[in-house]
Specification:
Layout lengths: L2 E5 L3 E4 L7 H9 L4 E4 L10 H13 L8 E7 L6 H9 L3 E6 L19 H10 L2 E4 L13 H16 L5 E3 L5 H9 L4 E5 L1 H5 L2 H5 L16 H11 L6 E3 L8 H4 L14 H11 L6 H12 L8 E10 L4 E3 L2 E3 L7 E6 L2
Parallel strand pairs: 2-3, 3-4, 4-5, 5-6, 6-7, 7-8, 8-9
Antiparallel strand pairs: 1-10, 10-13, 11-12
Length: 344
């Protein structure tokens, strides 16, 4: 197969940042996607509909002329989020989910939740109204190995939440482990998971063997090869509970190549091409459209995009760097060859 045409995909997990960064991130998001679920972990975070409205306006101001790409907004859950906040989100046409971050789990997550049980009233309201809960599924206890955070979260928290709120629509964001894929596959009720291109294409050896590669450092962190294999199997299986979410997260080069480097991989420069690479290697290009274009829309109860996109087998080399907010960033797969290219 040398050409693949699919329904225009959506990104169900992305970071656009704010202010000057939007000049880079918004056009990149609009390059191949029809819609994108925009993460709310700004400083300060997007806690309510008023903040989401203002952020959305800044995003749309950076959207390329004649682009139809739409940002889908998310509220950031805190210890002080109320049921009234959830009702306001449900009433807002452009807020599509609420996001749980454990405090300190990732970039700008210091305002995250310190005790999940304090949100039970919020979860009850979300279940009642059908508001989607997006879970950053990690624990942050200092005594838990960073490679075990997701598995421990599932055992310690996710099992209880699923049992107590069986009808709550939930996405386990950017799963990274065999345990995560298995839990989603074996669960009843409305539970799904997003999967990133970096966790399909790389494992922790790629990040650590032969020297530390900071531009592959993300959270949740890359895991063993067996976990990568489990994610590839889930993504390419045709199971509608698994869908595309890039977690594209830009950081300037100096913030990554640092004694305390930031976590995050930037993939929007070539997002659909990176996924096509992973699916092609797995011999599963015929499953890409469902994963990228249909399953996420189905879960969020949205219509499929009307446009289509075409990918051609046309080898090219990813640029070594990209201009970003007055500096530069190093994109995922920088300097590497990819076999698929979006047809303009």
């Amino acid at each position: 197969m040398d050409q693949l045409t699919i329904i225009q995909p959506d990104d169900w997990h992305l970071h656009l940042r704010d202010e000057g960064a939007l000049a880079t991130t918004v056009p990149a998001a609009a390059r191949c996607f029809g819609r994108g679920i925009v993460m709310p972990n700004l400083v300060p975070p997007v806690r309510n509909v008023a903040a989401a409205t203002a952020y959305r306006e800044r995003i749309l101001a950076a959207r390329p002329e004649n682009s139809e790409w739409q940002p889908l907004m998310v509220l950031y859950l805190t210890d002080n989020t109320s049921a009234d906040d959830i009702r306001a989100a449900h009433a807002c046409a452009f807020v599509h989910a609420c996001k749980y971050y454990p405090a300190g789990a990732t970039t700008n997550s210091d305002s995250g939740v310190t005790d999940l049980e304090r949100l039970d009233e919020v979860f009850e309201t979300m279940q009642e109204l059908g508001v989607v809960l997006q879970m950053h599924g990690e624990v942050t206890d200092p005594d838990i190995d960073i490679f075990d955070r997701e598995a421990v979260f599932i055992d310690r928290h996710l099992v209880r939440i699923r049992e107590k709120f069986p009808a709550l629509k939930m996405v386990l964001e950017h799963i990274t482990t065999e345990q995560g894929a298995t839990f989603v596959r074996n669960s009843e009720g409305p539970l799904a998971a997003s999967i990133t291109p970096q966790h399909l294409l790389y494992n922790r050896n790629d990040m650590l063997v032969g020297g530390i590669r900071p531009h592959l450092f993300c959270l949740p962190i890359l895991k063993r090869n067996r976990h990568q294999t489990a994610l590839i199997e889930a993504a390419t299986s045709g199971d509608s509970r698994f869908f595309l979410g890039t977690d594209s997260a830009p950081h300037p080069r100096h913030a990554k190549e640092n004694a305390c480097g930031c976590a995050g991989c930037y993939s929007h420069h070539a997002a659909i091409e990176l996924y096509a690479e992973a699916f092609d290697r797995a011999g599963a290009l015929h499953q890409l459209e469902g994963f990228a274009s249909r399953y996420g829309a189905d879960f969020y109860n949205l219509a499929y995009n009307r446009r289509k996109i075409t990918l051609n087998r046309d080898p090219w080399t990813v640029p070594e760097r990209i201009d970003y907010d007055g500096g530069e960033l190093i994109p995922l797969a920088a300097g590497q060859a990819l076999n698929w290219r979006l047809q303009n």
